[in-house]
Amino acid sequence: MLKKILFFILLPFAVLADDCVQYKKTPFVNIKNPEWTKTVELSDDPMDEYNGKYFSFKLHGITETSFMEKYNIDFNVIPERDGYCVIVNGVDATVGYENFLVKIDRSHKKDSCSYNAVLKHEEKHIDAYLSILIDLAPDIKNSIFNAMNSVMPIYAPDMESIDSLLDDMYKKLEKHPEIVLLHQKINAAQEIRNKRIDQDEDNYELKMCE
């Protein structure tokens, strides 16, 4: 008997949610890269030897960066029966590298020949990161579009519940297979391109400073 009672209680909510489907839109997707900064500093401690699977070398510098994703979802709220339909219009997304921190081994005096040689090498890594955003731009836009397009209009019983429903929507977008795969592509590109730079480096300019 309990199952029958639950069935008749849940059925009206399903009907109301279906009423919102009629408002489904093809979402717009606008993407921009964040304004990035570069900070250069000397390491607090001497840098160690890097021992990789295929090669090893003395570390003279290292570049660290942070990848940001910010999604501003544009939506409409339409009264429907005793509640509201929340419809996604699209998203304004900021995706990319925000800050670069270049650390140079403190054995290289600032503005010295060797310091500038190391800095020049680390700037190649920065260029590599930025090139990923250019080369993967179509993948980034398609992935975000497909994730957004999968979001159906949702029913909100009252205005107070809309914020919570939008929070759930953000969480679902973060875990969407297209977004997860995009992160994997970006991480793989980072590893490949940065490794190639270090493998191809012959330290010619650094040696000329000796």
Describe this structure in words.
- Strand 3 and strand 4 form a beta hairpin.
- The chain has 210 residues and is of the alpha/beta class.
- Helix 2 runs antiparallel to helix 5 and helix 3 runs antiparallel to helix 5.
- It has one domain (22-207).
- It is elongated, with a radius of gyration of 25 Å.
- The termini are far apart.
- Helix content is 46%, strand content 30%.
Shape: elongated
Work out the number of β strands: 7
DSSP strand (E) fraction? 25-35%
- Please mark out the parts with pLDDT under 50 across 5 or more consecutive residues, or reply none: 1-15, 51-56
Largest sheet: 5 strands, mixed
Structural class by SSE content: alpha/beta
Ends apart, CA distance between termini: 88 Å
State Rg.
25 Å
Q: What's the pLDDT, averaged over the residues?
A: 85
* Alpha plus pi helix count: 6
Sketch the topology as an H/E string, one letter per element: HEEEEEEHHEHHH
Helicity level, as a percent range?
Answer: 40-55%
User: What's the number of structural domains?
Assistant: 1
